[in-house]
Amino acid sequence: MKRVLGFIVFLAMALTAFSSAARAQGSAFPIDVAVTYTAERSKVANIDCGCFWFQGGSANASATFFHGLGAAVNLSGGYASNIVPGIDIGRITFMAGPRYTLNTHRWTGRMLGEKHSSYLFGEALFGYAHGFDSVFPTAAGSQTTANAFATQIGGGANVTLLHGLGLRLFEVDYVHTQLPNGASNSQNDLRLAFGVSYQFRKHE
Q1: Can you name the CATH fold of 2-200?
Q2: Helices (H), the chain
Q3: Given its phi and psi angles, is residue 189 left (phi above 0), alpha (psi -120 to 50 degrees) or beta?
């Protein structure tokens, strides 16, 4: 668990440095970064539930290039204890892909005020999952770590409150990984997240 938390803190610091550098250089594209708490419902295998919740965090960054279309990267880490008696599991995912962002200020301006803005976004990300501190069945027996393909499809909402600083009000994602589990070697999870965000634009 400490490894996951340390990794998320490191990424949050890296994203902060990235956003500061881009702002200082007058980035031509709107850039958003966010750090969130995440809770992800998963299961041991696709059989009678055996369900558990990953608890952790994520950090992500995105840039919008043309009429709401852009790209995003996301790094998430989570840990769950005692998913079956005596067995824990940790997992880190890194994914990237397209994102579409919709400025909703025209509908929320009266409620939030002219100085604040709101956005909805949807994305489809693809990448890598690393499982650790657990038991992953293999043809030769089992191992404590495993790597696999990962997919994340979902979206959420941001509200900018003061000088670019804001909230990730919510994020809901479907997360698919293919870590070995002794059955289907497939996991289909629901991830919920909320946290803080920062947005800056060319004029800042």
Answers
A1: Porin (2.40.160)
A2: 2-24, 105-112
A3: beta
Query: Looking at the whole model, is its pTM more than 0.70?
Result: yes
Q: Between β-strands 136-138 and 117-132, what pairing exists: parallel, antiparallel or unpaired?
A: unpaired
| Ramachandran angles phi, psi of 178, nearest 5° | -125, 45
Domain residues of the chain, as ranges? 2-200
Question: For residues 17 and 110, what is the distance between their CA atoms, to the nearest angstrom?
Answer: 34
- Say if residues 187 and 179 touch (Cβ distance below 8 Å): yes
pLDDT per position as a tens digit, 69-124: 999 999 999 999 998 888 999 999 999 999 999 988 666 655 555 567 788 999 99
Bridge pairing between strands 69-84 and 187-200: unpaired
